[in-house]
Amino acid sequence: MKMFSKKINKYIVYKHPMCYYKYEKYVRCNLIKIFKKEKIYMISQDIRKIAPEMDPLRRGMGWSSEDLSKPQIIVESTFGDSHPGSAHLDEFVKESIEGISEKGGKGSRYFATDICDGQAQGHDGINYSLASRDIIASLIEIHANATPFDGGVFISSCDKGVPA
Questions:
Q1: What pLDDT score was predicted for residue 85?
Q2: Where would I find the beta strands (DSSP E) of the chain?
Q3: pLDDT tens-digit map of 93-128
């Protein structure tokens, strides 16, 4: 598994906490250098021209005018207090946002929390386990495509979120 897809303008893939240090180094050293040197197409800037209502919405979330012109990166995670496998992922999200910001991009946090088989077993909750994988994959697809992003960092840890 590669840490990042070469199709930077569509997705940057990060899936496993054990690879964190390689990931951190890559984001902090190369992410925005790739955007600037290779002059990668930024869909976010094209969409701003045809949907100017997005700018005030993002300003309402604390974005500066300068942030609107930066490469816009989705940081999607299965973080949640649902089980030990996902409770720590917010730390990776924070580091991702910092790394993106340090290199001249603007990150946006999105979450698609997964469930735990261990807590779902022994009652009807287990019937939702496998179905949750499809729902997580669909939610991530919705998040990544409903709002234009120039790249993405995807963080998950357990078997419900990793396939997504």
A1: 86
A2: 12-13, 72-77, 106-111, 151-155
A3: 999 999 999 989 999 999 998 888 888 889 998 898
Helix (H) or strand (E) holding 96: helix 89-102
- What lies within 8 Å, CB to CB, of 56 at 6+ separation is none
Q: Whose structure tokens read 């357990």?
A: 158
Residues contacting residue 21 through CB under 8 Å, at least 6 positions apart: none
pLDDT in tens, 36-60: 555 667 888 998 999 999 999 999 9
With b for 16 or more beta-carbon neighbours within 10 A and e for fewer, the 7-41 pattern comes to ebbebbebbeeeeeeebbebbeeebbebbeeeebe
Distance between first and last Cα of the chain: 14
